[in-house]
Amino acid sequence: MEYFFQQLINGITLGSVYALIALGYTMVYGIIQLINFAHGEFFAAGGYVGVIFMSYLLSQGAPAWVCLSGSLILAMAYCAMLAMAVEKVAYKPLRSSSRLSVLLSALGMSIFLQNGLMLTQGVYDRAYPTELTQGGFEFGTVMLSYMQLFIVSLTAFLLVALNFLVFKTRIGKAMRSTAQDKIMSALVGINSNRIISLTFAIGAGLAAAAGIMVGLYYGSVRYDMGFVPGIKAFAAAVLGGIGNITGAMIGGFIIGMVEIFAAGYISGEYKDVFAFLILIGVLYFRPSGIMGENVDDTRV
Amino acid sequence: MSEPILELRDVHAGYGSIKALKGISIKVMEGEIVSIIGANGAGKSTTLMTICNIVKATAGDIYYKGGCINKVASDSLPSMGLCQVPEGRRIFPRLTIEENLDMGAFFRNDNEIADDMERVFAMFPILRERRRQAGGTLSGGEQQMLAIGRALMSRPKVLLLDEPSLGLAPLIVKQIFDIISEINKLGTTIILVEQNAKVALSMAHRGYVLETGNVVMEDEAKKLLDNPDIQKAYLGE
Q1: Confidence of residue A300 (pLDDT cuts 50, 70, 90)
Q2: Is residue B236 scored above 80 in pLDDT?
Q3: Which end of chain B has fewer CB atoms surrounding its CB within 10 Å, N or C?
Q4: B84: contact with A, CB 8 A cutoff
Q5: Do the interacting molecules here have an ipTM over 0.90?
Q6: Residue B84: which of A177, A187, A191 has the nearest Cβ?
Q7: Interchain proximity A188–B78, CB inside 8 Å
Q8: pLDDT (tens digit per residue) in A272-292
């Protein structure tokens, strides 16, 4: 039973990461019907900006909370700007082209960004400072580390903040309007280019936060770390119903849980397989996903 | 005679190689209801979309309040007082009634938005009842009311209406057109595109008849209603 609870905690932690990345996929898809294959690279870039700035702050003797929040804010801001630049260079000029062209442009961007990271940061793992993340609560043999607590509570905060932004504020309403009808949005005075740019920025900011979490949790980052979690988060977005914000959150947690429990109870070797089995299953049996089409109110 | 508030001078526009407008000239004076009638594919909707710069004019000029607006971005026009209720109403289906109305006032920052929403609710009480419902759940007539209400939230000087009667029961059509008359009496200039030529001309001051991208006739609405050619072609008499 203890093993079950331990896996539950681990699953929620991993699910948090997938949920944050999946939101970027689903929001961008909701607004311009593009699967942004470069999205995983924002996650990796966030991990790197985080480790660089966090190490710097630590070397200056800053307290732990300053190191964490400072590097988090900087990484999110950096990735938000990077995503806006990518959108402007690689996607905006193709706004009226076929969806395949934009998709190929996204794949190209992914390769470009990943190689850029490799060339500037090297091909080896880069270690995260470990002194910030030690310790935790123990309940018998079940361990809830401070790190996991940090990841889960930060994710909860970001999810609540995002929900508030999208469903309660005017700018969120404008995002949903743009997703639903771009011409009509223009006719009421919404600049859809600005809204699209903002959507990319928010998605990449969330991915950057996830990048730092993964770096802290697993202890290191690598230039190609965006690929596999990126695809798994994409599976999570599809599972939730692509384009649906609540769906992406739920999908992320499900994929995280399934992966951890399957690794724990079935086989650790095959842990990467399960996310893709789910993806294939969803596409085969219910392409609209959990929250797709039939449950409409939380789509962007 | 004073300057027109909106004027199209020899405007051409189209979609790819298809020419939808082949040199259209239209003048609209402040306070008027101008009706544009014509068959399917005559270029009525394209005319409105070109005014709003959703479809680009390939030649000719569009003047609004004396300034050329050919190059003004579509999303800047509502704040200048030019607003369109497009064909098919285009309600945001997954936004609530209230949110749809709020989006009509998107560019506004003043503190009278809530008052304006109350005014729209007073005009269309059914919308108040359903304010928290998604726009997509409304009936056709209610959606038309919402679309007009949303446009009013921008406090337009000139309101472009594209086929507000389309697909609605006669009783609802009358209700909608009464409201349009009322909006006009409160000082909003109106351009009304309609296939339902009889209703449109009977409420308009002047009318234009479009055929395959050209203005083939323009006159006072009453005279158009009495014109035997118009009666035969558009009024079914």
Answers
A1: low
A2: no
A3: N
A4: yes
A5: yes
A6: A187
A7: yes
A8: 899 999 999 999 998 888 887
Cβ-defined contact of A173 to B95 (cutoff 8 Å) = yes
**CB environment B156-190: b (16+ within 10 A), e (fewer):** bbbbbbbbbbeebeeebbebbbebbeebbeeebbb
Hey, what are A101's tokens? 């062209």
| Chain A CA closest to residue B48 | A187
- Asked if residue B162 is part of any domain, the answer here is yes
Query: How many CB atoms within 10 Å of residue A224?
Result: 14
Q: In whole angstroms, what is the distance from residue B84 CA to residue B157 CA? A: 11
Interface test with A, best of B90, B100, B111 (most A CBs within 10 A): B90
Give the chain A residue nearest B148 (alpha carbons).
A188
A-interface mutation test, from B94, B95, B101, B154, most A Cβ less than 10 A away: B94
Question: What is the domain count for chain B?
Answer: 1
**Chain Cα centroid distance, residue B4:** 17
Q: Which residues fall within 8 angstroms of residue A195, CB to CB, at 6 or more apart?
A: A31, A171, A174, A175, A178, A185
Lowest mean pLDDT among A264-268, B52-56, B233-237: B233-237
For chain A, list residues whose CB is within 8 angstroms of any CB belonging to chain B.
170, 173-174, 176-177, 180-181, 183-192, 296-297, 299
**Is B220 among the domain residues?**
yes
Q: Are B146 and B97 in contact (CB under 8 A)?
A: yes
Share of chain B above pLDDT 90, in %: 89
Distance from the B6 Cα atom to the nearest Cα atom in chain A, whole angstroms: 17
Per-residue tokens: A148? 């996991």
What is the pLDDT, as a whole number, of residue A23?
97
User: Under a CB-based contact definition with an 8 Å cutoff, are residues B178 and B12 in contact?
Assistant: no
pLDDT at position B237 is 61
- Which range marks the domain in which residue B191 is found? 6-89+157-234
Residues of B in contact with A170 (CB under 8 A): 102, 106
Which residue in chain A is spatially nearest to B108 when comparing CA positions? Answer: A189
The separation between the first and the last C-alpha atoms of chain A, rounded to the nearest angstrom, is 40
CA atoms of A181 and A282, how far apart (whole Å): 27
Q: Which two tokens stand for residue A234?
A: 């994409």
pLDDT above 80: residue B23: yes
Buried b (16+ CB within 10 A) or exposed e, B114-152: eebbeebbebbeebeebeeebbeebeebbbbbbbbbbbb
Q: Assess B76–A contact: CB distance below 8 Å, yes or no.
A: yes
Write the CATH number for B176. Answer: 3.40.50.300
